[in-house]
Amino acid sequence: QVLAREVGEDVNIQNLLSNAGSWRGRAQQILLLQTRVQELEHKLSQNKIRASLLGMDEGCGALPDPRKLSVQEKNLLKIRSLEKEKKESLEKLTEQHNTLQKIHEELKKKHDASRARNQILGEEVRMLKGQIGTLLEKGKHDDELIDALLSQQKQMQEILKGLSMKENGTMGQPLNTEIQKQSTMIEELRELVTERDAKIKILEEEIGKL
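Structure for CCD13 protein, as requested:
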């Protein structure tokens, strides 16, 4: 009876005795089955942990307890964490790069607009300086003409003073007429010079504002 309890009630004792090498006791079978069950449970636990680790990036499952993880599982967890940090860092750097690219493009547009404006201003300055140069050159000729007319007028007045009464009657009138004409011309030239100086001043102020 003891032997039957050990090997099982349904086991033929005679067959067991004749084939003792191929039979195992019930206790040994139970131990093997328990070991197999533990192995299967461990594999099932590992599969659940791996599934949890693989679903971390999508938010599937909570982080497992590190104390219950094997070395391989801890390494896998660390790799996943590093990959996540790398992905976040790359996204952040990409965003910063895009922002800097936009700033660079805006600054380039402003620089190009400023350069174009500087070219336009440079042309305006050259044009205004050319106008000033023309006015100064013309003013120089006007000044020379005024000086010549004044000198000629002075000579006529000297001649007029030296004429006798008789000569003054015949020649004085034409000289006086010519002197008046020259005086009018000199006054007109002086007004032109004044206008020229005013224009030059305005042009110089415009250049100063550019």
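Helices lie at 2-7, 13-18, 26-54, 71-162, 165-209.
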